[in-house]
Design brief:
Layout (H helix, E strand, L loop, with lengths): L2 H30 L26 E2 L29 E5 L2 E2 L4 H5 L5 E3 L5 H6 L5 E6 L1 H4 L20 H9 L3 H7 L14 E5 L23 H27 L4 E4 L14 H4 L25 E2 L3 E3 L1 H6 L2 H15 L7 E6 L9 H13 L4 E5 L4 E2 L15 H14 L2 H4 L4 E3 L2 E3 L11 H7 L3 E7 L2 E7 L9 E8 L2 E8 L4 E6 L1
Parallel strand pairs: 2-4, 2-11, 3-12, 4-5, 5-6, 6-7, 7-8, 9-10, 10-11
Antiparallel strand pairs: 1-19, 13-15, 14-17, 15-16, 16-19, 17-18
């Protein structure tokens, strides 16, 4: 064979190998990461079952049709029908309010409570106890020049105040009852008649450092080799006192929680180790604070693992994975009820609003995670439509609020189900048309850019939600086979729309 012919044969042989490798690689990639596959139309992903043979199929609850607000500094409460969620849910409104809105608009559109800082004096008096909530920040201790949590000075010091002085500071919150609600609980202690109370201090260090102590703190005299243990003991004791004193002296029968510390961390649980490694838990979660070996979590009624977003979450379109990862990890390590803090703007500048479908998905999947509600937070107060004011100088579009409310409204269509004793589950999902099934946590789904499917089950019924956060276009379709026990169905996701449906199993 001539050199020319030999070269030609080798080139053809090499091309065949490359082509075969490419095809194999493409098929392998598609099997592993089929985020834009349409199993109903793509022969490679043909369904392995006939949907017509399936029993007890899901009935989808459609999107609520509305035109999102285009004006700035305005929330279109009136565009939503009056609706409520079952009484066990706690959706606290701690967001922006309009100049001329009223409490009834908020409390008749899915929200169950309003934070005291978002109520007028008249509203505080007229509101029901079951509608009142309080989040108390570090500025409370700052007013006493206390060093336990003094953000302006950058001090987070459990050693600076004696236990007695610390308890006296906390107990002075009794004034909430007299100054705001004017209906103090009976007895010698003027305890506030509220339903939910949260401390938001964010002063617990994961790794103790003396530089955060007050200049004259007794903690600075502790030898370095004994400092960490001393810090753990003192901070754990102070947090137990914080919760106990609040319950005994500040509120009357309210549920009490703290934003920080969380279990294991407040947000960003994309590390798979957080799901399985006990050392991922924040140190205080199990640190004893007394001779009875109890600590502060034995006294809190709920935890608030955060649902905040960074601009990276918007750019990577992984925000809903983060919401679910945070809830899944905290639920794995603790049975304490969850009412996560959620904000529909990014926490870092420019405080951008989250996209519509992420806002809607946040409210729906929060419930799907088994959480009891959410603390809907924002940093602004009263606002005037399309105007800047001295108190609120910037203007923002609040369509993200409306889509969050739309998610709550769709959930309310399933109130009959949500009033049952349901359980949050991760269904089995097939991304290859029914050939194989897997149960992946949110961090794993994010790694593989796969759609998110979650469900609640109760007494032979299932409520299921799904979304494809990585959709590349509004018309892109992804067909999934979902399974729980012996029940099975086929759903098709379109774009980033959130699927919500209920079925008998």
């Amino acid at each position: 064979m001539s050199d020319l012919k030999m070269n030609t044969v080798l080139k053809i042989f090499a091309f065949c190998i490359l082509a075969g490798t490419a095809i194999f690689g493409y098929n392998f990639y598609r099997e592993q990461f089929p985020e834009d596959a349409d199993f109903s139309q793509n022969e490679h992903f043909s369904l392995q079952l006939n949907p017509a043979t399936l029993q007890n199929r899901l009935t989808e609850t459609p999107d609520f049709p509305f035109s999102a607000v285009t004006d700035n500094n305005y929330i279109g409460w009136e565009k939503f029908p009056v609706f409520h969620l079952p009484s066990q849910f706690k959706f606290v409104f701690h967001g922006a309010r309009m100049e001329n809105d009223n409490l009834d608009q908020i409390l008749s559109r899915g929200f169950t409570h309003v934070d005291i800082s978002r109520m007028s004096d008249q509203e505080k008096v007229k509101s029901k106890v079951s509608q009142r909530a309080i989040m108390m920040g570090a500025n409370y201790f700052t007013q006493f020049n206390a060093m336990f949590s003094n953000a302006p000075l950058g001090v987070m010091d459990p050693f600076a105040e004696t236990d007695q002085k610390f308890q006296n500071y906390v107990a002075q919150l009794q004034g909430i009852c007299f100054n705001h609600y004017h209906d103090c609980a009976e007895g010698s202690v003027m305890r506030a008649t509220v339903d939910l109370f949260v401390w938001d201090l964010e002063n617990v260090l994961y790794k103790p450092e003396k530089k955060y102590l007050a200049p004259n703190s007794p903690g600075r005299n502790i030898p370095d080799d004994k400092f960490d243990i001393a810090y753990f003991n003192e901070m754990a004791k102070k947090y137990r006192l914080l919760v106990e004193t609040t319950k005994q002296n500040v509120v009357a029968g309210a549920k009490v929680g703290t934003y920080n510390p969380g279990c294991p961390i407040e947000m960003g649980n994309f590390n798979l180790e957080n799901y399985k490694n006990p050392s991922s838990k924040m140190w205080m979660w199990d640190w004893p604070a007394g001779s009875d070996k109890k600590n502060y979590r034995d006294f809190v009624d709920f935890q608030t693992p955060g649902g905040y977003f960074l601009t990276n979450n918007l750019e990577n379109r992984d925000g809903i994975y983060q919401i679910m990862a945070d809830q899944e990890v905290n639920a794995h390590w603790s049975s304490i009820p969850r009412i996560p803090v959620e904000w529909m703007f990014t926490t870092n500048l420019p405080n951008a609003p989250v996209p519509p479908k992420l806002a809607e998905a946040t409210s729906i999947f929060t419930v799907m995670s088994g959480a009891q509600g959410a603390w809907f937070w924002d940093e602004v107060f009263k606002m005037t439509k399309n105007q800047s004011t001295l108190q609120n100088p910037r203007q923002r579009n609040y369509a993200c609020y409306e889509y969050y409310i739309a998610g709550l409204y769709r959930l309310s269509k399933h109130n009959d189900f949500l009033q049952t004793n349901y359980q949050a589950v991760i269904p089995e999902v097939s991304f290859d048309g029914g050939k194989s099934f897997s149960q992946l946590n949110a961090a794993e789904l994010r790694q593989k850019s796969l759609p998110l499917v979650r469900a609640l089950v109760s007494k032979g019924r299932i409520l299921l939600a799904a979304q494809n956060p990585k959709a590349t276009g509004a018309d892109q379709k992804v067909t999934l086979v979902v399974k729980y026990g012996n029940w099975k169905d086929v759903i098709t996701l379109k774009g980033e729309n959130v699927y919500l449906g209920e079925a008998r199993m």
